[in-house]
Amino acid sequence: MENTFSIVHFSDLHIFQPACCANYCSKRLCGCLNHHCSSQREHNRDSFNELAAYINKNDRVCFSVCTGDISSLAVRGEWQEASEMFSHHFYPSGFLINDDKELQKNQITMLKKKPLLLSLGNHDVYTSNNELRIASNYLSAFFGHSLVEEEPFPSSSSMNGILFINFCSANAHISPFNSSGCVPQHQLNLAHDFLMTVDAKYIAVCLHHSPVDERLLRPQARLDDSIDFLRWCKEHSVNMILNGHTHIPNYTVVDGMVILDSGSLCLNRKTYGEYTFKMINDEVQLMNVVFSEFKVESNKFEEFARMNLTK
Question: What span, in angstroms and rounded, lies between the C-alpha atoms of 72 and 25?
Answer without folding.
Answer: 16
